[in-house]
Amino acid sequence: MVVNYQENGWQIISQRAHGLLAGQICFHWKKDLCPDRWVETIIATTEHDDAFNEFYNDDILLNENGGPLNFKMRRFEKDKCEELMQLALSKSRYIALLTSRHIQFLYKATNDKKALLFCKELEKADKKWLKEAGISAEEISKAYSILQWCDAFSLLICQQLIQPENRKIEISSGNGDQHYQLHSADNKKLIVEPWPFENDHFEIRYESKLVPQLKFKDVREFRNKLKEAPVTQHTYMVAKQENAES
């Protein structure tokens, strides 16, 4: 989960809500840049974190001080990665390949031996899945670059990293070597340069929950408070530079 500290408590965005936002962003990609299996690419982008469900089966939710644990503080969890891969494989080999690429992207640079071993096993399985999917490694790389870019964009929004005073921040290189920058004309309008989307502007939205209690005795208490917490709807307009003033 994404955890932001605010004056009135913890703002919590679930991993799945972040994934849904990434999927919305992916949906608007330029048609002539989309891979052939576009629906599956959107699904993989939306569900790339689906093994993490704070409301149901995730018990690593609190830090040593009893506060909610931000996703960046979590280490490699083999059981979650295996669950994520099984969820993907039950849909299609294409989605499994994109999910595999994402896990490798997250953990190949780590010093965790278990994570590195898991990534090697995925690399080996990828060769089999590529044949079964009837697709090339280059095609998967192209599709994954879009997934990773949309994931990065979603995380910038959910972590409240959009810079004030119209200052620019890099999103990700995305598809190829092109670098994309994000800045905000106001609190509700986001501008991306260069423009990678089909339409000149579109809306995106996500939900967060506000938990006023700062410390919890255990995961059960936190989960109950999180379920009961009020929901806030967040809406942004993503716009091309020349449409920012319209």
What does this structure look like?
The chain has about 250 residues and is an alpha+beta fold. It contains seven helices and seven strands. It has helices spanning about 15-25, 40-45, 80-90, 95-105, 115-135, 135-160, 220-230, and strands at about 1-5, 10-15, 170, 180-185, 190-195, 200-210, 230-240. A seven-stranded mixed β-sheet has the order 1-2-6-7-5-4-3. The longest helix is centred in the middle third of the chain and has 22 residues, at about 135-160. The two termini are about 35 Å apart. The mean pLDDT is about 95.
Topology summary:
Elements: E1 2-6, E2 9-13, H1 15-27, H2 38-46, H3 78-89, H4 93-107, H5 113-133, H6 137-158, E3 169-170, E4 181-186, E5 189-193, E6 201-211, H7 219-228, E7 231-239
Parallel strand pairs: 5-7
Antiparallel strand pairs: 1-2, 2-6, 3-4, 4-5, 6-7
Helix pairs in contact: 1-2, 1-6, 2-4, 2-6, 3-4, 4-5, 4-6
The number of helical runs is 7
H-E order: EEHHHHHHEEEEHE
Strand content: 15-25%
Total E-strand runs = 7
In the sheet with the most strands, the strands line up as: 1-2-6-7-5-4-3
Shape: globular
Quote the average pLDDT. Answer: 94
- Work out the helicity level: 40-55%
Which runs of at least 5 residues are low in confidence (pLDDT < 50)?
none
Span from first to last CA?
34 Å
Structural class: alpha+beta
Radius of gyration: 19 Å
The biggest sheet, with number of strands, parallel, antiparallel or mixed sense and barrel status, is: 7 strands, mixed
Keywords for this entry:
single chain; seven-stranded mixed beta sheet; 7 helices; 7 strands; about 15% strand; about 40% helix; about 250 residues; alpha+beta
